[in-house]
């Protein structure tokens, strides 16, 4: 195994940028993707988080902030390892309310 995976949503750089804009780390990452011209496809079953995901058009990241986030790229995939089974993720019941 190589470098340990990390959650970029818990990164201090992103947290600082989020605080400066009064946004969440997830909102900053969505805005970063949009400003780079990427298609962002967030996922959530939580209505509050879904609404939060849409609330990224009322602020803009500065060139310096974009560069600081870009510099976080280590070339290593982040998030859950796709090779490690996580059956608890498939046993969840999603309410249809």
What's this entry about, in short?
The protein has 97 residues and is mainly alpha-helical. The protein is 38% helix and 0% strand.
State the main characteristics.
globular; single chain; 4 helices; about 40% helix; about 100 residues
The number of helical runs is: 4
How many strands, which pairing sense, and closed or not: the largest β-sheet?
Answer: none
Number of strands: 0
- Strand fraction equals under 5%
| Overall morphology | globular
Mean pLDDT: 87
Distance between the termini: 42 Å
Please give the radius of gyration in angstroms. 15 Å
| Class based on secondary structure composition and strand pairing | mainly alpha
Sequence stretches where pLDDT stays below 50 over 5 or more residues: none
How much helix, percentage-wise, in residues? 25-40%
Say what oligomer this is: single chain
Sketch the topology as an H/E string, one letter per element: HHHH
What does this 3D model show about the protein?
The chain is mainly α. It contains four helices and no strands. Helix 1 packs across helix 2.
Strand and helix map with partners:
Elements: H1 12-21, H2 25-35, H3 47-54, H4 63-70
Helix pairs in contact: 1-2
